[in-house]
Amino acid sequence: MKVSLEWLRELVDIDQSAVELAETLTRGGIEVEDVEDLNKGFEKVVIGEILSLTKHPDADRLLVCAVSVGHEEVTIVTGAQNLLTGDRIPVALIGANLPNGLSIKKSKLRGVVSLGMLCSREELLLDDTVGLDRSSDGILILPSTAPIGESFGHYLGLDNSVLDLELYPNRPDCLAMVNVAREVASLTQKKPHLPKWADQSQVLSLPVATDLRIIIEDQDLCWRYAGLMVEDVHIGPSPEWMQRRLKAAGVRPINNIVDITNYVMMEMGQPLHAFDREKIKGNVHVRVAQPEEKIVTLDNVERTLNPHTLIIADDTQPLAVAGVMGGLDSEVTETTKSLMIESAHFSPVSVRRTSRRLGLRSEASNRFEKGIDVSGSVAALGRVCDLLQDLGAGRPVAFVDEVKHIPPRRQVALSTERTSTVLGIELAVSEIHQVLEDLNFEYQENDGLFRVEIPTYRSDIEIEEDLMEEVARLIGYDRIPTTLPQGDQTQGRRTPEQEFRRRMRKVLAQSGLDEVLTYTFTRAEADAQWGSAKHSIPLLNPLREELGVMRTSLIPGLLDVAARNVARRNTDVSIFEIGNTYWGDEQPLKKLPKEELRVAAVAVGKSDRHWFNQSSSYDFYYLKGIMEAVAHEFGLKLEYRLAENQSLLHPGRSADIYLQNECVGFLGEIHPSLEKEWGLERAVLFELEMEPLFKKTRQTVRAHSIPRFPAIQRDLAVVVGVETSAEAVMSKIRKLGGNLLQHVEIFDVYTGKPIAEGHKSLAFTLRYQSLERTLTDEEVSLLNSRILEGIQQDFGAERRK
Amino acid sequence: MFFLCWQLIAIWILERVIYLKSEILRIKEEALKNLRELESPEALQELKVKILGKKGSLTAMLRQMGGLSPEERPIMGQVVNEVRTRLEQAWEERSAELEAMALQMRLATERIDITLPGTRISRGHIHPLTQVIEEIEDIFLGMGFQIAEGPEIESDYYNFEALNLPKEHPAREMQDSFYITEEILLRTQTSPVQVRTMEKLHPQLPVKIIAPGKVYRNDDDATHSPMFHQVEGLVVDQGIRMSDLKGILLNFSREMFGESREIRLRPSFFPFTEPSAEVDVSCMLCGGAGCRLCKGTGWIEILGSGMVHPKVLEMGGYNPQVVTGFAFGMGVERIAILKYGIEDMRLLFDNDLRFLQQF
Ligand SMILES: [Zn+2]
């Protein structure tokens, strides 16, 4: 809502500057988003008169003008050719900063000193409604009535500020100047000049129209419909002051009748619409449209209506889309002789739907959508009568007022004690008296208990808490002290699951992975590739098609991030994300879907290059190492089995991950056939479900004591077929080693000469240890060779020399 | 004869004593000379063994004293001991000298370029938004709050209706939602967790939770992301006052943005709180004097809050005649932007490693 300060001053005394007033309103709960100084750029621009024009002595195309700016005469050089002696023109004096950004300085043009500039419309950013026709060829030429020496901004009525209110949906009343004035009055402890016309008597003294009836067919969609009949209409421009105010409020002046309806709407919040009375055949019906019914609206577009559209029609055809836009046929034109001016209440929901559907939003529809004061319909017509007479635009002759529903006036109780308790401020009964006085509300008080009559324009006040807010904002939120809750002390603590997630994130970051956060909606195809098309949930109104479904896998998001970084030459990427995936089990959803928390990682490129440590490529073992760190942190026994989904992962370099025989995720290198699609070479990745990991997390560590007897360490290298898995050999070693074999570790894997083709060498460190005694070399050697024999038997392995 | 014999023996003995004594002194002199020439601790040790060891030359001298008279033995013993002490002392001095020389040598040769970078410990980075969420969580955990959670895909009922936003309420327009069906949508705020938590806990008191999480609105520009994060807060108990809200939020602001921060409340509107308040914190850049960050006002808006609307308490199962509560909600991105001075919010979801690795 744009509020012209010049207009507002007529309705309430203001002794603050525009900026101060904005602060007062904002601190009072009516947020002022912007204060626009209309005079900006017009300081130091005054109206001057050309006294003489002479050719520049040294330049054919320049003129030297003697200009009177009231109290003095200045010489200005101009190149314009449209000037005559005696013309009144805007003069930018030295120091002016014009709206187009030009700064005016003293200058010398070919030897002649110029003390300012004569301005064109373009330089002042004005349209062609200002000035004489001759102005289009150069300098803006004003009518001869323009007062010499007067500030140009003042002349145009621009020495004014406009406050742009950002209204919350609970205060649609402030879409009316009178209510903004009431608000200012309440916050600054003034009385608004509520004008005499803000009542209904003027209209009620008119006869009721007999030649036209209002028939409201759907009283849920229209509570009230009043109409004012006007004869002897003279269409013409509205006066300067009205146009000025409308422009400041952001409304384009059209003609006196349309301007009056808009002016009253801005002033009183009631949208109005003027119909050409002669175009209405029979009675006025407020009804929903029939299927496929059509109307050509004011913007000359034929629109097809449907039974959800509320329309105004006569006996034969639609006249207007109720609350949204009038019809072209019944529009007020230059030849209009008589009018019906509509002042009605339409259902906010209906207007919103219709204006959305037709893509038509206006000051009027906006007000209907937010809700208007149904009690004010006739008062607004009273204001119209006033202006019609003032402007000589027409003669009110009769009215109609069909009322279906007016909500009863509300009374709300307010207890001083409860208000004090809820706000935490010790309030005196007298303070509440003062607040209600300032609000101009009627009330009764008994022993600190108030019964407040809520004015019809304050539809937002329904319960005691609403009044508490009025009290708080009028005495000022700054009066609220700072205290702490008095009740039982509680202890804040993360749940084990919340702690688990936090630790998981820490382990991964400490292992070298960077955390990313990606959108949880993604491309349907990418999600289908890595997740489950069957379960993925599409959005009805996605922002873009490529953000169309809720993800069932974290992998596409991570691959996108990796690819984007690689494309930006961040070539080495190792990232992870912990986030939800969303699993619908029916289409369309009937209940909320499952949200499954997962953790996933992608790595591509190399570890950091460094002068001391060699860098190595991120590969399967890099991520497996990180996963082992995770397993270690949480005491989990993860098992790696050859991956089953071999279309996405490299069949020779990927594993499914099992936890107590349940598959909880996968780890591997992306399938070479997908590399091009994702723009990544040899990316490795994993994805795990969080919940099973959490459920099987070791609760506490059970400590083992340190053995008292020394351990004996032996290395063992064997050559086996390349297809033999290290884990198989290791578990055989463990089995054969029995209790005395405390630890086995693989420390070398080698293929190539002198190992025969198709074979590899595996080297293990075995640590033997007894908890009861010191082992002898002999028994360890015996055990070691038994293990070797066993491996040779099972894997055809030979000991490497 | 006996006398002569005795005499002779005495002379022989005397000569032996003289001989032994000179021999001992010779060993001493030679040892001291060698000692000065030796360069390594090993050679030093070797020499020590050669003279003072079990089979050493000085030890051999002692063994030869067997022929001496009881009167002479102590005299010779004393000589040997003196020499031994002298030699041991010399040895210690020399080995200390050698150790010092070796140390000098080592220090002279062991030189590295201390300007070369250290061995890299590869550590990842936690996303700034996660860091901010955890910091907020920690602050409120410290004030006795629990962390509650709720689904991101939410029913219209919890996201709107239970928050006093019936269908067709104009305030629904403040938020453009992503819909999945007419009744199911991506939550537009973390506020639905308020009602879910109350339903779960009632009639238990006090309710004291925060609820961090992802929220979604159909918006995408320099200052809006379609997915972003909020932290909701809710306190319900007997006698909860608006001043308590102010106290808790003042504590929070000071822990988050610094000890000297002040806050101010401004009237506002949220359908699920009444009275409602926007909360500004004094500018962390200029301290309130006015600067570019606070657009000259000295204040920066950080969150919305208010007293829980009686209808919302009712829908959560509590009697608004008996209990009151306050609620607040803040945008995590906004706090991260203020805290880290991030210029463009889109960087937070762009996931460029050059950005992420700063945190
Ligand atoms: Zn500042």
From TrEMBL, chain A:
Keywords: Aminoacyl-tRNA synthetase, ATP-binding, Cytoplasm, Ligase, Magnesium, Metal-binding, Nucleotide-binding, Protein biosynthesis, RNA-binding, tRNA-binding. One of its GO terms (molecular function) is catalytic activity, acting on a protein. Its EC number is 6.1.1.20. Residues 707-800 form the FDX-ACB domain. Gene3D superfamilies: 3.30.56.10, Bira Bifunctional Protein, Domain 2, Ferrodoxin-fold anticodon-binding domain, Nucleic acid-binding proteins, Phenylalanyl-trna Synthetase, Chain B, domain 3. Its cofactor is Mg(2+). It is found in: Cytoplasm. Binds 2 magnesium ions per tetramer. Its main location: cytoplasm. Residues 39-153 form the TRNA-binding domain. Mg(2+) binds at residues 460, 466, 469-470. Coiled coil: none annotated. InterPro entries: aa-tRNA-synth_II/BPL/LPL, B3/B4_tRNA-bd, DNA-bd_dom_put_sf, Fdx_antiC-bd, Fdx_antiC-bd_sf, NA-bd_OB-fold, Phe-tRNA-ligase_IIc_bsu, Phe-tRNA-ligase_IIc_bsu_bact. The keyword Protein biosynthesis applies. It catalyses: tRNA(Phe) + L-phenylalanine + ATP = L-phenylalanyl-tRNA(Phe) + AMP + diphosphate + H(+). SUPFAM superfamilies: Anticodon-binding domain of PheRS, Class II aaRS and biotin synthetases, Nucleic acid-binding proteins, PheT/TilS domain, Putative DNA-binding domain. GO terms for cellular component: phenylalanine-tRNA ligase complex. It is an enzyme of class 6 (ligase). GO terms for biological process: phenylalanyl-tRNA aminoacylation. Residues 407-482 form the B5 domain. Belongs to the phenylalanyl-tRNA synthetase beta subunit family. Type 1 subfamily. Tetramer of two alpha and two beta subunits. This is Phenylalanine--tRNA ligase beta subunit. The gene is pheT.
UniProtKB/TrEMBL annotation, chain B:
PROSITE patterns: AA_TRNA_LIGASE_II. Its cofactor is Mg(2+). Gene3D superfamilies: Bira Bifunctional Protein, Domain 2. GO terms for molecular function: ATP binding; catalytic activity, acting on a protein; magnesium ion binding; phenylalanine-tRNA ligase activity; transferase activity; tRNA binding. It comes from Desulfosporosinus hippei DSM 8344. InterPro entries: aa-tRNA-synth_II (IPR006195), aa-tRNA-synth_II/BPL/LPL (IPR045864), Phe-tRNA-synth_IIc_asu (IPR004529), Phe-tRNA_ligase_II_N (IPR004188), Phe_tRNA_ligase_alpha1_bac (IPR022911), Phenylalanyl-tRNA_Synthase (IPR002319), tRNA-bd_arm (IPR010978). GO terms for cellular component: cytoplasm. It comes from the Bacteria. GO terms for biological process: phenylalanyl-tRNA aminoacylation. Mg(2+) binds at residue 274. Tetramer of two alpha and two beta subunits. HAMAP family: Phe_tRNA_synth_alpha1 (MF_00281). It catalyses: tRNA(Phe) + L-phenylalanine + ATP = L-phenylalanyl-tRNA(Phe) + AMP + diphosphate + H(+). Its main location: cytoplasm. It is found in: Cytoplasm. Binds 2 magnesium ions per tetramer. It holds the Pfam family Phe_tRNA-synt_N. Keywords: Aminoacyl-tRNA synthetase, ATP-binding, Cytoplasm, Ligase, Magnesium, Metal-binding, Nucleotide-binding, Protein biosynthesis. Belongs to the class-II aminoacyl-tRNA synthetase family. Phe-tRNA synthetase alpha subunit type 1 subfamily. This is Phenylalanine--tRNA ligase alpha subunit.
